[in-house]
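Let us walk through a complete example step by step. Step one is to write down the protein sequence. Step two is to encode the small molecule, zinc ion, as a SMILES string so that its atoms and bonds are unambiguous. Step three, shown after the inputs, is the structure prediction itself.
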Amino acid sequence: MRTLLRSSLRHLAARRAHYSDASKVKRHLLSRIYQPGNRWMENSPEIQAKSNEPSSKSQRLLYKAGLIRPASPGCFHYLPHTVRSMEKLILVIDRAMQEVGGQKIDMPTLCSAALWRQSGRWDLVGTELLCLTDRHNREYCLGPTHEEAVTDLVGTEGGISYKQLPLLLYQITRKFRDEKRPCFGLLRGREFYMKDMYTFDINEEAAYQTYNNVCDAYSNIFSTLDLKHVKVQADTGNIGGKMSHEFHLPASIGEDRLLVCGTCDFAANVETLHPDEENCPSCRGQLTESKGIEIGHTFYLGTKYSHIFNAVCIDAENKPVVAEMGCYGIGVSRLLAASLEVLSTEEDLHWPNLIAPYQICLIPPKKGSKEMAASFVAEELYDDICTIPCMRNEAVLDDRVHLTIGKRVMEAHLLGYPYVIVIGKKALESPPMFEVQNHRTGEVQFLSKEGVLSFIQDVPVI
Ligand SMILES: [Zn+2]
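Step three: the predicted structure of the complex.
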């Protein structure tokens, strides 16, 4: 009797300890996450009028899942799941940029018209600029890129010492472009997130080295996200410069036409070739056409801007040398949408796993169902998952137990969590078994609690 009592007391103490641990866990409950429904679509004459216009898969699925909402043409509210994913994507990009020596800065959105007139781009870019005037009659544009601003910043500093070279400055901020016809949701907006980097070197050779390093970093970012991409030779457009490349995700919805060589690794945007070109200019192999969504663009600028704004490097002999520059963009919100575009099915979102809003969605039994006795096991499993350090904030509990398991599983797959764990009938067995669904492969396996925890330990997270 005494031993029995002692052992049950010990058991109780252990349980209490478990709960005091668990109380420290901040639960991510789906019922608490702001994810408005789609009633706005029914009430929006503008959306209805546009329902015949082409839309994109990512746009349709993001609307359906309640993850973004249009505010005005080409401008969107990013809702909590989308922001989580964006923040992870930014982390991936930050790491890659800092790996090649990038230093993060943050420049004003309001860009002085005077600087843009000095570079000649005020009129060149023209109607694509969103412009405004302040109370003192000073003119600005809402920055689409920051070549003028950053070169002026560096230029007024009197020169970069050769000891500081190469200098790589970048930012991830909102950018603006007055698109005539914004479309495809986050793929072609008027207000969007962009990573823009600007580099300064003392001579061409060093600048080409920097250019190649940043291009390699771009390829690493897309590979980290498991995205098939092509790097193509591109036109320098209104940014200017001597050499340029674009990075594309091949997709039928893409607005750029690419020619890719089947023999060597030559690839180019059609714009840069003669209209009748059928053979690869480097190996004469057959070129095939495909379509791509542009997600990154790099430019070797030379001294185009540094000359105008007097950005110089100071060499070892203390002499000023006009800086050789490069600029490098990644459309961050576009990359997010483009990856959804190429990975998703018609029915369900698929994110690059690393940047999915949450890695895991747990679905406990429906209230009032036979399986309801397993609710307790579900919460315990959730809290145990959260004690794995890398999973602390990566699991969401779908506590909307008034809904059937089936309905919630369907929604979980629409949202695209990489792993969905269902706490159903088998959770009542001894030991309890849990159904783990792999969203990408469709694979389903039944695991014990220990099995789930060891499986989850190996899920890669950022
Ligand atoms: Zn070739």
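Step four is interpretation. The two ends are 52 Å apart (CA to CA).
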